[in-house]
Here is the input.
Amino acid sequence: MSVTLADIARATGLSASTVSRALSDPDKVNPRTRDRVRKIAQDMGYVPNQVARSLTSGRNDLIGLIVPDIANPFFPPIIKAVQARASAKGKTVLIADVDEHPSDEIQRARVMRKRVDGLVVVSPRTPDDRLDQLAELSPIVFVNREVKGAASVIIEDSEGMREAVEHLTALGHRRVGYLNGPRRSWSNTQRQNAVREACAAHGVELVEFGPFEPQIQAGVRAADLVHASDVTAVIAYDDMIALGLMARLNERGVRVGPDISVIGIDDSPMSGMAYPTLTSIHVPGSEAGARAVDIVLDLADAAGDTEPFVVQLETRLIVRSSTSPVRER
Amino acid sequence: MSVTLADIARATGLSASTVSRALSDPDKVNPRTRDRVRKIAQDMGYVPNQVARSLTSGRNDLIGLIVPDIANPFFPPIIKAVQARASAKGKTVLIADVDEHPSDEIQRARVMRKRVDGLVVVSPRTPDDRLDQLAELSPIVFVNREVKGAASVIIEDSEGMREAVEHLTALGHRRVGYLNGPRRSWSNTQRQNAVREACAAHGVELVEFGPFEPQIQAGVRAADLVHASDVTAVIAYDDMIALGLMARLNERGVRVGPDISVIGIDDSPMSGMAYPTLTSIHVPGSEAGARAVDIVLDLADAAGDTEPFVVQLETRLIVRSSTSPVRER
DNA sequence: CTACGTGACGCAAACGGTTGCCGCAAGGAA
DNA sequence: TTCCTTGCGGCAACCGTTTGCGTCACGTAG
Here is the structure.
């Protein structure tokens, strides 16, 4: 099969332990021996067996990432950021897509447990009590979700939401719709509260719709509800819903922008490519991912003696062409 | 720390081997013992250490997936399909995003080697000779890429391309542009050949542009080139380029559809959400992913005595609103 | 010249399971 | 009753590395 430490030991006339040290703990052997070992290992095409290595050392050079849905364009940039950061620190990423199916998470996390050095969990939907179970599987970091006693990177919706509502009022909108996300979504609770507060603060009347799943189709469905109501602007739980909404409104001959303003949340890569381009609240997913990796690796090193970190990231409004002054009636 | 086999052995008064069998090879122990062991294991919260398990058994219950760019919306559906299929067979997926950086692939693959039961590689860009090196790391399956002596799932562009050109001629187009993908891309070579043949067969004049990277920005840049030429329709290497193209054309006041027809390739989820909705050649990525998993797992079981599988999948044209009859001049 | 410190390396025990082989006891057949 | 079969479970080796500790030789100081 493949070349093992023992093979190299034989080839060099050294013991496996020396070879092991020469390769991974350079200071403990004579420089001459070290170089000789390394050269031979190289020549023989030696690749350390990570599995065996993990077994003794406990290190895996792997970090686990749990996301609800890779196909939702909000997540790939996060995943990419996590990968990039992990890769920079010599780790690989083990991904589990739980398919918006929260009940899988604990199961998946348990299985991953011994295989990874730490877990990054993006899980807007899982109920709190389940998350507590997860939290015991430290080191673990939650993204966009606050869990008591656990580290997390949370994204503060209120500022972006405030900007969004302010933007709409500046355009003359007085009745604004909000399309709720999934019922049990932590993010939705945050966003819902944020929009309520912002509207109250600006004297804007808020009309809520939903809940909706974060998918195009749900937005399509939402469009007709919105159209039948008398709101002049809509803020959607996320870009997916906003995009579906716009597609359907376009189809029905309603001009997004002139006839009705639409704001998404996430600022996913598609916002700029939709028609019209979608005004959206930028959520710093990539940054959150990168920070999460940093934290989880710190946690892994520190072996639990650090206190639970909570990093807050801010959102902000990106204005594009899906929002315009309210149409005169 | 956590509960090990030995703990359960102690608790049950059995030996570790019996416990092991009771848990993973049910037929070899007395049903009564088996149930007792399982119950106790359950109660004690035993979770097998996958790492240790892999070391002896050689099985990892992990399959590796190498993709060029998660952020390209063509890939998430493939990843999802791979995950789903793998998950159905009790495997988890280890993803490596090589960031359109082919030179990383072999390195990443080597590191993964011992950790996974098989490798699925989606790698349109890597040069052939490197791929040969990869191919030795069997079990391995290439998606959308033919490698001699190795299993692969390839996607035959010619049929879809034929339909696309036929569609355009039916709409009266006689001068058609093709936006080339990256220079060293295997897919692009396939597509380029396919479009040349199809145009020749239909007596359509073909004007080639590019190469372009498979990214929005490249499409934006392409737009001005296309606009300055006299083609009445364009087929882009992929949807990313097509979408960037459309965005820029829109911006310049050129109406995609009425003024110029655009066809993408991949039929990524965004095609239906762009404006106008994008006519695109559907590439069965999900199916390819699923098939690849099946094959790689077969390969892993069969330990090399099967001959290299090559599965061919067909493409077909999905007509939407970015293609219209040629405008009268 | 002896004693002791130190650097370089080897020994062997883990890590937590899996698995081939063997022994033992119970049951069935002769 | 005796012998053989069969089922069940234990023993121990092994997977490939890491790592604590011991050994050995050499150099230096007393």
